[in-house]
What we know:
It comes from Streblomastix strix. By secondary structure, this protein is of the alpha+beta class. The chain has 6 helices and 5 strands; from the N terminus they run E-E-H-H-H-H-H-E-E-E-H.
Amino acid sequence: MSVVQLGNFLSFSDSSSRDILLDACFKFRESQSLPQEIAEELRQYSHLSIVELNELLIYNAISDEQKIKELLTGCPPQLVKEFSKHMSVKVAQWLDYTIESQLSIPKFRGLEWKTNLKADCNSSISDSFVPTAMVNLQVENPIDSSKTDVIEFEMEKDTLNDILQGLGQIREQLQAIAQQQK
């Protein structure tokens, strides 16, 4: 690795060395076990450790080069320029990776339904039937994304009305958020 001391901060003179630094930033973004020399060099110029800087960038989705530069006041300008340029790209990639690899929220794949008549057990008339819907939701298997899991449930008209009302509220909230971002 070709490393040149620039003040007290490590400056990597070739792209493969910068990639090594960026990979180290990603690998150690949640731990305190970052290689000591990188952590010490960063601390000399910044009030943030590399772990804190990564957490700040990723948690707040800061991928704008100018905002990253503002976090590194006091560092040599050339280093700030290179670091912010590369981190702006990497933060966006890491955010995409994080979103794609979430295990807690399965991705929606499809919806199928059929209507049916179900005998009403509560009715005193034996010929009384209640319309129902059998719904099959297809979601991505969280372990193997090439497979689809099916969630089956039955609902009556009242339940469907509640779901439609809730979906309408979700749509309104998403529209309000989209309008705020414009």
